[in-house]
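In the present case, backbone shapes were mapped to integers, as reproduced here:
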Amino acid sequence: MSMDFDQRGLFTRADALASGFTDDDLRRARAHKSIVAIRRGWFVRGDVFATLDSAQQHALLAQATHADSGDDVVLSHVSAAVVLGLDVWNLPLDTVTMTTRRGHSGKRSRRRFLHGTDLLDNEWLHLDGMRVTRPARTVVDVARTHPLEVAVCLGDRALRHGLTTIDELENSCDAAQHRSGAGRARRAIGAMSARSDSVGESRSRLILQTVSTALSNQTIFDEGGRRIARTDFLFPDLAEVIAEFDGENKYGPQPRQAIIAEKNRHNRLAEQGRTVFRFDWRDLSTPHVIIDRLDAAYRRALLLGPPSGRYAELPLPAATALVGICAPYRRCGFPRGA
């Protein structure tokens, strides 16, 4: 019997056996890499698995682990962040993180970490057939247990996409005040912003704010009130210097037109007497390089004098709605073999 089948989702050994396949069929399919074992007794097509990034692969493992766990267990921390569709830059994805209200300290196995902490009924939701901590609780849990930089990147994305608010985060932090890392979480929340469009911008803001308060995504107008540009960062106390982060996907699918538009935009800012400096993802690993460029830009701006025009903080365009990462790969019916 062929192990060819037309599905993208998870299936179990029991699903396969019930459809007429045998354990030998499964072993041969694994040997030929036409299926991949996500965890014991759980599989997905090999060609599907090969298209997934690390977060999507983690989402499959989280689904399988959740299904094998008790009814009082909820996906939390990093796993909840993955399932909610949040950016999990620099967070570990090798272990599924879960929380249970059964009062015990953390329990770890090779691929699962079970936290034993209080969990109120309003702190979790059902998503793609799983119990998952709500965004505010998820961000606070990550902020309690991971470094500030990664927590801020996660929180910024949740805020930018409207999954939570600063008030909700602060309330969730208050509820966690007696848990380890609560003070760390409160510091991270104080550094989060709903005006960041990417992990790169979040990391940039944390670096730049060690020198001065950087205003994110300010709109620049000329003297006639016409819109010139929206900047990544502007420093009102440093001669209105502008900092631009060049992300990897900055120029999109039509780079030539985007580069020309960017050059015209830069020229209009220069005509106002504004000083702009740039940096990219590689520079984020050497913050002193960015700070040196800011210092040099400030010295140039002082020589030019005050720029013309004005700037204002306008509402940002609506962010694209986040979609649960698991939906396309959730467990589905196993097709009957021929």
About this structure: The longest strand covers residues 241-246. The chain has twelve helices and 16 strands.
